[in-house]
Amino acid sequence: MQTAQSLSIPFPEFATFATLPQEGLPQEPLRAPILAENLLNICKSDENSLPLQPEKEKFITMTIPSFKSLLLKIGFEENNPNIFTKQYPHFNFTELKVDFNAQKIIYPEVLKVWDATSSGNFEHPENFVVLECVTRLMDKGYRPEHIQLEKRWQLGHNASGGKADICVSNETGDQMLLIIECKTAGQEYNKALKNTKQDGGQLFSYLQQERSTQWLVLYCSDWKDDNVEYQNTIIKCFDDANILKMAEKDKSQPTYKNAHTVEELVEVWKETYLQATYDNLIFGEDTQAYKIGIRPLQKRDLRDFTPDDKIVNRFEEILRHNNVSDKENAFNRLIALFICKLVDEIKKNDYDEVEFQYKVGTDTYESLQDRLQRLHKIGMEEFMQEEINYIDDEYADRVFAQLSQSKRQSAIDDLRNTIRILKYYTNNDFTFKDVHNEELFYQNGKILVEVVQLFEKYRIVYSAKHQFLGDLFEQLLNKGFKQNEGQFFTPMPITRFIWDSLPLDKILHTNEGYKLPKVIDYACGAGHFLTEAVEAINTYFRHKDCAEQVEENAWVEKCIYGIEKDYRLARVAKVCLHMNGAGKGQIIFGDGLEQYPEKGVTNGTFDILVANPPYSVDAFKAHLKLKNNDFDILPLITNNGDQIETLFVERIAQLLRPKGIAAVILPCPLLTNDTSSENAAREQILQNFYIRAIVEFGNNTFGATGTNTIIFFLEKYNEPPKRKEQINDSVQAILTNQISSDWEDKDIFDAYLEKIGVEEQDYKAFLDQTLSIDEVKAIPYFAESFMQILASMRMRTLQKSRIYRQATKIEQEQMIITLFYELQKHLEQDKLYYFALVYKQNTLIITAPTSNSEQKHFLGYEWKNRKGYEGIQIISPGGMLYDDHSRVAGNTLAAAVRNSFDNIQTCVPEREQYYRFARLQDMIEFTRPTFNKEIKITVDSYNTLQSKYPLHRLGGDDGLCTIRIGGTPSRAVPAYFGGQNLWVSIAEMKGNVITDTKEKISDEGVKNSNVKLVPKGTTLLSFKLSIGKTAIAGKDLYTNEAIAALIPKDKNQIKDEYIYYIFNSGLINLQNVGKKAFGKSLNSKYLNNDIYIPVPPMDIQEKIISECKKMDDEYNTSRMAIEEYRKNILQVFENLQVITGGVN
Questions:
Q1: DSSP-derived pairing of the beta strands 586-589 and 606-611
Q2: Phi/psi at 624 (nearest 5 deg)?
Q3: Residue 468 to residue 476: CA distance in whole angstroms
């Protein structure tokens, strides 16, 4: 056994170990000062421990048994009382010893200790770390004779002296292999690491004095939960062969070889090697002593991105210090690298070595690029269905395999060199800088290595949407592509809002179960809408306990489609899908205005269309080459026109199936501009869709574009029959005075007359062309049109004509009125047609605030331009738009949009200032002489009722009730009266239950009139003459034509008595529906289309009924005034939050 040197390490007299009495040890406590951040919290406190002392030096109390436990944990044995040793038989039984009796730490003599007075002193916390590290080194196989402690150097020129904690020589002992600086864990370690990164710290001063050193190590360890944990930061301090080769061409390239001072060494580490650090190269499970190398990455080593990684900043720094100014090209190269990495991750198992990495010490720039080119070829063929040329290194050998040996080698060498020049010394998919020769190849190779090393350790393929990866990708995207007025990327919060706003249940839930939707984004850009689509649909199926239908995202292959005309963005979109676990989704490189039947893009087949198409593209028409599609709007656009968005509007109608839904971002001017193509685009929307909601965003929504935009939320009409063809039939019936009460003609006509303020007899006289000029002027609606026609070019042409000048005054007036009828009837046909399409529609309007500060609050994000922090900065996830934690939350603006597809008006507390509901007929100007279908979103709300619960339409096809209007048998036939059938008149409606009536009608009267049976329990409501009177049918009965019966379609959704109390309370002001007085007649269409009532759960309805009945009893047995009664009833509704904010 080798002799040993002793280091006598007296415990400081002020240090305390709380301990039980043991033979041979002092009976008073011993205590050691250990800084709070000491890596080796060697001991555990127990009931005998002393308390912690004040701040400056926190004394971590420990027990001798705990210290012994530590030594035992790292392999020491207690062969003699209070003497712990660890022997290394393979090192000639070299021994480490801790002697508590003598208070000494003893290192083997063969292990050189330069300063025996300090290296083992317990007074310095780092000594515990040194002891543990030496033990770990020897455990790994480093020989003690190659280890030195506290090594000193002579001061030299430009080099500071110092003592290195641990130095380790190479296997032959003739050169320094590594220098280790030991620190306590936490603050001390972090401080040393910060200093090292800043100016090289102690480690680089040691390197300057021991230039053969290959590795510098900052080390700490910690005693936690009965285990020793270590941390190390390792710096490679020898040159990469590729860097040295580049330095031969470029003398300005910093290298370790040519560095002469500490400052220059640090500069090399920073500028050339980007302060690269490593871990687990020395003590990792699969490492060997002396054989230090950077272990190739395996797939299992890849980790997730985190915000602390600052990837975007680091990528920009690589570009900056390498003088790469073309960021768009750099982003294109990055996408090519991502394609390589995708292929690599997808095709590798966890324990496979990844190919997307720079293997330090073995890779050349050429071998790295060859590997990347091969991966890129695979990725482009599999992901983008494009063939990429790739020549492997054995190509030349195969070409000349048949030649004789004498000729073969020369030809092979010549061809290899030619291929090498063409393959590497020219521009390719990985050139961040132009490459035309070997020197430029090495310059670009250095950049490529740095970018590969930046991303190689991270995972980019996930099974589902990964939020931070998406944020990172968007940051890179915003920096790599210039956005302009015609093309800008949709911020991810907006894509989330849109998808949360779509009524997925309406599309996916069918009578046969749940179906997967076919989704398209015909201008998909970077694919944000598509990745959000996959996440939203998967969430829906998981919420419905049908996760098996979306397992592993296999469904996306036949359901997710994106089209993108920009080749770069098409690649980005495909990469984005793969990153988010939806790589089988279809990305088509092509024009979103074109059809691609061979790829599944055909008209009338998509359930959902979500897009942000380009707009304002100057003179696009000359470049539009469509083979499989045409547009009605296209001829209306001039050759220099820029209204490309109008074609994308028409494309929505082409692609969606009946009842399909769309959410499309468009420029605000499309609502009001008066060009032919924009008018036609609005016509396409009105002819084919319900406009469920319009959301107007401010100029801060899309960052640098400063564009005001809207989102149309649309639902295509159900077909067949085609809605616009049915409407056209009704319009022709009205214009030819052949109105049928069995069809919709009468409802359309009545509503239109009310809209324009013309009496029926006057309008029919207009249709019959019997109005004189004076009579036309007497009707305000026609008078305005008449004056405009008088000033028109057609009229001036007529008045200049010979026939007009030669006519009598009466003849001239006839010519004028004839021209008026011709032009006005054409206008009326157009107006009637679009009015009939929209008069039943109600639209939710959401408007963002205009001030910058309020927009931030509304959106939940803002745009930053500060260097290093460019792009979106999230302030409050979801803002006022959606709930970041729940896609189905009911108290958001997204929920209000979602419910609008079912004609449900959702009240959203604390957001009332941002939204309102309007009748679409009020948003389009039908009363003016010009008619361009302009859609205004500044109209007043027609319903001011506020409720915690959704507001449902009272009547109509999608309403709560079937509304039956009564009738009166002919008084000319006495036999129709006097029977047994109850027949109610308004005079009998007094808020009561009707079980008998003054007049009755016979069965013959029922049979020969338009009276309709009203079931027992139904609420009766007067809507003519005495408007708003209520009663309940106590029996099956009939009513006259001034009374509407409100019959629930689903009594599990709404109760009869609840409906009664809603109307009996005065909650619904029938005298002022839509803020417009209608005199003493309330048209039945308003009952069907324009009245919305809150629908709480059934238990709340029952509570309301119960409370209201109590009020009825009190009213009937006291002298309570009707005003007080109604006030009390309203209080019941307000207490249960069925009504909030009072009644207007």
A1: unpaired
A2: -85, 115
A3: 12
Residue 1024: what are its φ and ψ, rounded to 5°?
-135, 155
Report pTM: 0.72
Q: Of 741, 764, 686, whose CA–CA distance to 1041 is shortest?
A: 741
Nearest to 728 by CA among 748, 705, 742: 748
DSSP state of 10: P
- Which amino acid makes up residue 73? K
Instruction: Return the H-helix or E-strand segment holding 228.
Output: strand 227-236
| 8-state DSSP, 490 | P
606 residue type, one letter: F
Task: Report the 3 state secondary structure along 434-446.
Answer: CCCCHHHHHHHHH
Residues 312 and 318: their CA atoms lie apart, in Å, by: 10
Q: First and final CA of the chain: distance in angstroms?
A: 101
The overall average pLDDT reported for the chain is: 84
Angle at 750 between CA 749 and CA 751, to 5 degrees: 95
| Structure confidence at residue 1079 (pLDDT) | 36
Q: Which amino acid is at 195?
A: N
Nearest to 970 by CA among 868, 1041, 905: 1041
Pairing of strands 904-905, 951-953: antiparallel
Give the span between the Cα atoms of 797 and 790, in whole angstroms.
Answer: 11
Distance between CA atoms of residues 603 and 655, nearest Å: 4
- Distance CA(141)–CA(132), nearest Å, equals 15
- 1043 burial type by CB count under 10 A (0-12 exposed, 13-18 middle, 19+ buried): buried
Tokens 């036999």 belong to residue:
975
Which of 216, 263, 257 lies closest to 235 in space, CA to CA? Answer: 216
Which residues, other chains included, contact 72 with Cβ-Cβ below 8 Å and sequence gap of 6+? 78, 84
What digits encode the pLDDT tens for the residues 853-888?
Answer: 899 999 999 887 776 566 778 899 999 999 999 998
428-467 as b/e: b if 16+ CB within 10 A: bbbbbbebeeeebbbbbbbbbbbbbbbbbebbbbbeebbe
Would strands 993-994 and 999-1001 be described as parallel, antiparallel, or unpaired? unpaired
Rounded Cα distance between 667 and 459, Å, is: 38
802, with CB counted inside 10 A (0-12, 13-18, 19+), is: exposed
d(CA 355, CA 456): 9
Among left, alpha and beta (phi > 0; psi -120 to 50; other), residue 290 is: left
CA distance 266 to 237: 10
Cis ω on the peptide bond leading into residue 635 (within 30° of 0)? no
CA distance 1014 to 983: 10
For the stretch 108-125, pLDDT in tens is: 989 999 886 666 666 677
Query: Which residues lie closer than 8 Å to 942 by C-beta, 6 or more apart?
Result: 842, 917, 918, 919, 922, 1073, 1074, 1075, 1090
Q: Which single residue is written with the structure tokens 């709930």?
A: 883
Instruction: Centre a 10 Å sphere on the Cβ of residue 343 and count the other Cβ atoms it contains.
Output: 24
- The DSSP secondary structure of 532-577, one letter per residue, reads HHHHHHHHHHHHTT-GGGGGGGGGGGGTEEEEESSHHHHHHHHHHH
Distance, in Å, from the CA atom of 28 to the CA atom of 26, rounded to the nearest integer, reads 6
Confidence of residue 392 (pLDDT cuts 50, 70, 90): low
Cis peptide before 720 (omega within 30 of 0): yes
Of 487, 522, 479, nearest in space to 335 by CA:
479
**Amino acid symbol at 505:** D
- 403-426 burial: b if 16+ Cβ within 10 Å, else e: eeeeebeeebeeeeeebbeebbbe
- Tokens 């040329």 label which residue? 389
Query: In 3D, which of 753, 616, 752 has the Cα closest to residue 675?
Result: 616
